[in-house]
Amino acid sequence: MANCASLEELVRLQGEHVRSLKQQKANAEQIEEEVAKLLKLKAQLGPDESKQKFVLKTPKGTRDYSPRQMAVREKVFDVIIRCFKRHGAEVIDTPVFELKETLTGKYGEDSKLIYDLKDQGGELLSLRYDLTVPFARYLAMNKLTNIKRYHIAKVYRRDNPAMTRGRYREFYQCDFDIAGQFDPMIPDAECLKIMCEILGSLQIGDFLVKVNDRRILDGMFAICGVPDSKFRTICSSVDKLDKVSWEDVKNEMVGEKGLDPEVADRIGDYVQKHGGVSLVEQLLQDPKLSQNKQALGGLGDLKLLFEYLTLFGIADKISFDLSLARGLDYYTGVIYEAVLLQTPTQAGEEPLGVGSVAAGGRYDGLVGMFDPKGRKVPCVGLSIGVERIFSIVEQRLEASEEKVRTTETQVLVASAQKKLLEERLKLVSELWDAGIKAELLYKKNPKLLNQLQYCEEAGIPLVAIIGEQELKDGVIKLRSVASREEVDVRREDLVEEIRRRTSQPLCIC
Amino acid sequence: MPQLGFLPRRACAALLSQMLRPPRAACLPAVCCHSQVAEVMLTSQLKPHQEKPNFIIKTPKGTRDLSPQQMVVREKILDMVISCFKRHGAQGLDTPAFELKETLTEKYNEQSGLIYDLEDQGGELLSLRYDLTVPFARYLAMNKLKKMKRYQVGKVWRRESPTIVQGRYREFYQCDFDIAGQFDPMIPDAECLKIMCEILSGLQLGDFLIKVNDRRIVDGIFAVCGVPESKFRTICASMDKLDKISWKDVRHEMVAKKGLAPEVADRIGDYVQHHGGISLVEQMLQDPRLSQSEQALEGLKSLKLLFEYLTLFRITEKTFGEKVRTTETQVFVATPQKNFLQERLKLIAELWDAGIKAEMLYKNDPKLLTQLHYCENTGIPLVVIIGEQEQQEGVIKLRSVATREEVIKREHLVAEIQRRVSQP
Fold first, then answer.
1. Which residue has the higher pLDDT, B121 or B391?
2. For domain A411-502, which architecture applies?
3. Which residues form a coiled coil (chain A) (predicted)?
4. What value, to the nearest 5°, has the Cα angle with vertex B322 and ends B324 and B245?
5. Is B314–A429 a contact, with Cβ atoms under 8 angstroms apart?
6. Could you give phi then psi for residue B291, rounded to 5 degrees?
């Protein structure tokens, strides 16, 4: 309709006029008047069209957590946090963005994946890429020399998301780190112990922890003849060995990155090796590798680490793997990554695929980059990749057809007859005041059947039914949704009875 | 201009750091230029693990870390808030930290300057969420949900001027509870207020008061007082300041700065300085001028229903006007009847003689609602109402101001009052 079209045009123009007034920081009263005009115009468009259209999606690579997913998430975090606390960690929190310069130069090739905030006239900011750099910044800022902390929060990476594999642009990390100068390898061993405890408790299947050391990698490259300038880029090629064949990796190194084929072959001799502590000892005897001081340092530490891991009872879960490279620039010593050996799947379904569910390592130089005097604080830590774990647990629950409740309501306050809203309101209020988790339908005269159905859908185990006769007798009918059995309970005993049946502790929230 | 050339690394960094921090008044384009150059020089000359910082380490303006001690406090508080939400049957929800820019800018006309935008890095245009309500609406629409009772606890971001002392940050937590859906009126609204009371009591921060109003009443008042429609929102914004500045100053702003006619402002003043409990609602329902506004009547009726539910939830005393009592009066003597002054005087004397603290209005023929209003404002817990019918039958209405009526025989009155006031 011509009218509508010109009205929409007026709305658009008026909207722009308002926006430009605001940008010019015009007189407040003037802006108010123009805004009022805009709203009036919009109202004239009619009720449907004055409703602004929502673009109904979350940004690429992000997702909402539905109530069901929140329930899963809560369970998983519970297990993880209990473990961190068991090992004596404190908890901190940092802002979601940092000064851009804080993050610059810390992530090597991955720096291009950082989300920047728009320059709006203030400081230049970027969304945090991980929780480790903020941690180092926190240590330097507060001049701390030692702390054992965990931090659970979302991080942001402009990756190419593969959502089916649980890979997002916004995702949770659960980090645990030990900062401080201590006797070698004991904190490192505790980190690996924590990883094993958590992955074990989550019951997501068998897993393996690969371990390597940055110094061994660098030493190995050196003796194989990799030019210094190509270290990092060859490193990231080698890192792909868990997903791609050696042939493909070699092609990338030689064909794309200009590495000498003989050098590539020499690398190949090493990086395809993995084993237990015996491999460490074998390499300590390797004529070429033992000439390299760096590699020797790394191998010595790994030997010590294996001793401690044996005492911790987890040596059988650990594999010394020379192809483990890890992308991040700041690792200086031991590095590790946990992978699931097989993801539990329903018959005929695509497995989620092998991917790492936890990783970490030692990074002794990071804090020094922030400290004005370059003071070093050695750190070692781990990060649990919970998003992948969420997917696995969700899949598992779906497969088992176990009902996941999204609320914790213990009892629904219901009535069978009409005009009992007031009584329901009074009773539900009494229950809330006693700390009982209770609900009622927001209807003056709901049908009993609807109320019972609501309980079944939400998984609410009990119904407290108010009836006129029962009110006169001073009782409430308490009904078990599962068994459909009903019993009259004296009003003054109701709270206690509900607690008993839901085995609720006596404390009031 | 100093030579940049090839300087020793440290000197280079020091020189650059000087250049990167010119006085505020200096031309910004020059600084941009320098900082770009600085970046190039640093990354090419210094190896990554040898970079020396040439900036002050800090969190961004208006944000802060939470130390372990602060986290303990925060976790206690959030635990208590979430427990309450769960106790009322809410489901948890979480949404991304950023939304598509268009999702936000369409909804926040007023605040669009305060939204953090993400840089255009070749993909979708994004902005950090400004609150949790718009994401909730987006979630409902996206999932075609018609009903939901949800809570969400998460950070939001606003580029406001932070005032750390007042606890006002650019990054801060919000704990939202919302009930979406078409239901019978005022029941969900009452539950929201119940939740607020439970949480504020549970946190033990001290006494609190919840102020309640209705948009339709506000608009109705404006309409009947003669405020031009185009000025509704701006006058509303002035009125909102009444909790911080006096009516005199608010009125001045309305008249002098917003061009409102003085008589209109005065008429508004008659209404907006009222606060009280359910009796104020009833009083306003009978106001001749206000009852010309359909809107206002609707709002008042809703509030009346709300107060009934809040009474059943036993939280009405948290929604009264005055919290701190300055008198110890136990019972008020009232009447709806005209020419009942003598009866009131006789009754009140009986009460005084029995040692009961009692009051009445110094008016021959006060309106009942005015008397009830007085009780609520001064916190008098009981009111005795006498009228002709009750007089003849020898009974008196004794009413708890907070809950409900009861009818008592006159000779039992004193005993009943004494019984009630000695109860905790």
1. B121
2. 3-Layer(aba) Sandwich (3.40)
3. none
4. 105
5. yes
6. -75, 0
pLDDT band at B138 (very low <50, low <70, confident <90, very high): very high
Distance from CA of A487 to the nearest CA of B (A): 24
Residue B200 has pLDDT above 90, yes or no: yes
Angstrom distance (rounded) from CA A468 to CA A470: 5
CA B27 to chain centroid, in Å, comes to 44
Residue range A88-117, pLDDT digits in tens = 899 999 999 999 999 988 887 788 899 999
pLDDT of residue A418: 93
CA–CA dist B128, B98 (Å, integer) = 4
Picking from A94-103, A364-373, B138-147, which range would have the lowest pLDDT averaged per residue?
Answer: A364-373
Of the candidates A338, A375, A333, which has an alpha carbon nearest to the alpha carbon of residue A355? A338
Side chain identity, residue B421: V
* Nearest chain B alpha carbon to A159: B123
Dig out the tokens for B163 from the structure: 């005032």
Q: Is the pLDDT of residue B28 over 90?
A: no
- The answer to whether the Cβ–Cβ distance between B233 and A18 falls below 8 Å is no
Residue B324 pLDDT = 52
**Mean pLDDT, to the nearest integer, of B28-51?**
35
Q: Is the pTM of this model over 0.80?
A: no
- Provide, as residue numbers in chain B, all residues whose Cβ is less than 8 Å from the Cβ of A434: none
Confidence of residue B163 (pLDDT cuts 50, 70, 90): low
* Tens of pLDDT, residues A223-273: 999 998 888 888 888 988 888 899 999 999 999 999 999 999 999 999 988
Contact B375/B401 with Cβ under 8 angstroms?
yes
Q: Which CATH number fits domain A67-399: 3.40.525.10, 3.40.50.2000, 3.30.930.10, 3.30.70.1050?
A: 3.30.930.10
* Helices B187-202 and A421-433: angle between axes, nearest 10 degrees: 20
Contact B414, B350 (CB under 8 A): yes
Query: CB burial class (10 A; 0-12, 13-18, 19+) of residue A494?
Result: buried
Q: Which of residues 406-425 of A touch B (CB under 8 A)?
A: 406-409, 421-422, 425
Identify the pLDDT of residue B330. 86
Distance separating alpha carbons of residues A462 and A417, to the nearest angstrom: 18
Q: Please, which residues 208-237 of chain B have a Cβ atom closer than 8 Å to chain A? A: 229-234, 237
CATH code, residues A4-45? 1.10.287.10
Question: How many CB atoms neighbour CB A200 within 10 A?
Answer: 15
Within 8 A by CB and 6+ apart from A392, the residues are A166, A204, A205, A340, A343, A344, A352
**Domains within chain B, CATH numbers bracketed:** 68-182 (3.30.930.10), 215-320 (no CATH), 331-422 (3.40.50.800)
